[in-house]
Amino acid sequence: MGLITGLLTLPLAPVRGVVWVAEKIEDAADRELHDPSVVRAQLAALNQDLEDGLIDIEEFERQEETLLDRLHATRVGPGRTIEGD
């Protein structure tokens, strides 16, 4: 980057910094959302909540379905389906 370009784009440096941080946060959230080990841990915690009486069976089944859908999506990949489903 040349001296003139650097000086002219200097006011945009804070914006570039914020965009970089936002991209890093998005990457971390995406990894957590699609990491099978995270989903399995959430399923285990959900089972424990049911056993401890913190949630009822209807809430358990609703959350379990959501988590199993996420787990299935991580195995199949976005936009693809398994033959026979």
Structure description:
The chain has four helices and no strands. The longest helix has 22 residues, at 13-34. The protein is mostly helical.
Looking at this protein, list some descriptive labels:
single chain, 85 residues, mainly alpha, 4 helices, 0% strand, elongated
Integer-rounded radius of gyration: 21 Å
What count of helical segments does DSSP give? 4
Largest sheet: none
Distance between the termini: 53 Å
What is this structure's SSE topology?
Layout: H1 3-9, H2 13-34, H3 36-51, H4 57-76
Gist?
By secondary structure, the protein is mainly alpha-helical. The protein contains four helices and no strands.
